[in-house]
Amino acid sequence: MRTTLRKPSLTGLVALAATSALLLTACTDASQTGTDGGASGSDETSAAPSFDPSTIEVDEAAAALLPEDVASAGTLVVGSNTEYAPAEFVDADGKTPIGFDIDVIKAVGATLGLDVDVQSADFPAIIPALGTKFDAGISSFTITAERMEQANMIAFLNAGSAYAVAAGNPDDVDPANLCGVTVAVQTGTIQDEDIAVQSQACTDAGEEKIDILQYDSQSDATTNVAGGKAQVLYADSPVIGYAVEQTGGQLEQLGDVFDSAPQGVVVAKEDTELAEAIQAALQSLMDSGQLAEILGAWGSGDAALDTAELNPSVG
User: Does residue 67 have a pLDDT over 90?
Assistant: First the structure.
């Protein structure tokens, strides 16, 4: 049976407004900045971990693997959907990409002797733009067989999926059965694909379908669960943990982390030289312990892998 959503009270709406402001400070969409790239909160101080790419030494062997066009350009152009905190989002100044994925790709660039230009993009548009608009992409890409048919993928961390609900789980949502429940996801993510499969399984079993609310921005998905429009938030486990923290306890994780899988950097399928150079750079960062340090600053040190596999075998 579907649980009826409660209409937010005035107090709840005030709380939602506060939550929305907090989330938009942490997860501002680059499209919300002014024409000069700034924002009204541009004088705010970042609370993000500080990472200095100049502390990374160039790995000459890895740099030697770079294709000539990238090496001569001196800059790695990277696409990222900067709306998925804490992996990739926009700082309090309204324009600077930050997050653990951003720090990782900057470290990769430094290892290869390259500057890194991170450009915000819609998540589904990143892989199709590889090799034309972007040299590489980093945006919490779970490595799947389907994605490896479209691009080269280099693994560097392991993450799972998780659910979050309003604190106290007032609708008594069962994580093992979401039939009839309203679930918020970011468009194009693994969770977006999986919740559609779960909904189909519900209808195949004669139960009510899952009411799926898709958002281009992860912060919008989080805000709408905190505000009561959706009952469940479904995202990568680091994102769920961050959402719980950033909403001041208005949300809580529901159940355990599940479906752990590797995530990685994406490179155009035909660009094997660049893929191998990035693979070597990531392996160098793993061997030195710097990858674990970078992820650890964001509370995800345990997620670091020991081997940077190129197009690994996945289930």
Answer: yes
